[in-house]
Amino acid sequence: MSQHNNHSSEKNYVLGFIISIVLTIIPLVLVVNHILSKGVLIFSILAIAVLQLLVQLFFFMHVRDGEKPGYNKMALILGGIVVFTIVAGSIWIMSFNSQVH
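Now predict its structure.
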């Protein structure tokens, strides 16, 4: 039984790795070839970044696995709040800093 589980997890790692590579190459191609306008490009890169986050969480960090999935969700929500606070605070500070000059 563990052989089958091991083989299945190896397939998941390889699949996650391939998806991650594709999700990394797509924004690079979009930026280098100037395929989209600036606003659409930024939105596309952000959307692909969110997909990349989900791939990392499910394929490599096993968010859906575990005995206590509630703890995983709580840690994920806390991490999201921390990241949002840091990014929003940084943008807020940078916007005020650019108005001073």
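The mean pLDDT is 84.
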